[in-house]
Amino acid sequence: MKCNDRPLGQRLALKLQYIWRLAIPFWRFRDAGRGTVEQRIANYRHNRSQRKILPFYVGKWVGIAACMFQIMRLFSGMMASTATESANHLTVTLLCMSAGIGFAFSCVVLALLTSSYVFLSCVKK
């Protein structure tokens, strides 16, 4: 079945899943907290072998955070130059807030990726 034969909703869901997998590497890891002891040990070993991809994703998210921070600075400067009562001020304020939320989200993802890498590199079970 070709991609064009699928319904629009399914094609959109596949594209979003592809973008999500480009941004977040956690789909490659296994849950090492469930199962029998042998399964948990095997899953932890698998996760340790996959840790080498995490610095690449950390680099991606550092770039995303830097871009969000610069966009937030740009809109913040535009907020200072527009009149408070104008509709442009409200639009710029909402865009600045959105960029700030994106920056905060990227910082949280960076913390998760970094702590996961440190844990998988330093803790040997």
Describe how the helices and strands are arranged.
Blueprint: H1 8-23, H2 37-50, H3 54-81, H4 87-122
Number of strands: 0
Number of domain units: 1
**What Rg is obtained from the alpha carbons, in whole angstroms?**
20 Å
**General form:** flat
Following the backbone from N to C, one meets helices and strands in this order, namely HHHH
What's the tally of helices?
4
Task: Explain how this protein is built.
- With 125 residues, the protein is an all-alpha fold.
- It is 75% helix and 0% strand.
- The chain contains 4 helices and no strands.
- It has helices at 8-23, 37-50, 54-81, 87-122.
- Helix 3 packs antiparallel against helix 4.
- The longest helix has 36 residues, at 87-122.
- The radius of gyration is 20 Å and the shape is flat.
List the keywords.
mainly alpha, 75% helix, 125 residues, single chain, 4 helices
Summarize the structure.
By secondary structure, this protein is mainly alpha-helical. The protein contains 4 helices and no strands. It has helices at 8-23, 37-50, 54-81, 87-122.
